[in-house]
Specification:
mainly beta, single chain, two-stranded antiparallel ribbon, 69 residues
Length: 69
C-alpha cells in the first residue's frame, strides 16, 4: 500500500511543470490511474484523476478500454 503519493513532471532542465499530491489513503486499491497527459492545440496538459480499483494492471487497463495482449 502507498500513502502520500506525489507526482511531479519536469522538463528536460529539471524545472517543475506541474505536480499532483494524492493525500488520501486507499486501503482496498491494487492499481491506480493518477492522471492523464495530453496535448491540446500544441500545449501539453495534465488532468489529475486519482482513481483506483481493486484489480491488477491488466484489469486497470481493461477498465479504461485498453486491451492487453
Amino acid at each position: 500500500m502507498m500513502s502520500d503519493v506525489y507526482l511531479k513532471i519536469t522538463d528536460r532542465s529539471g524545472s517543475e511543470l506541474l505536480s499532483f499530491c494524492l493525500t488520501d489513503y486507499y486501503s482496498n486499491v491494487t492499481s491506480m490511474m493518477l492522471g492523464e497527459i495530453y496535448k491540446n492545440k500544441e500545449q501539453w496538459k495534465f488532468n489529475a484523476i486519482g482513481n483506483g480499483i481493486a484489480r491488477d494492471l491488466e484489469g486497470l487497463c481493461n477498465f479504461y478500454g485498453i486491451e492487453v495482449v
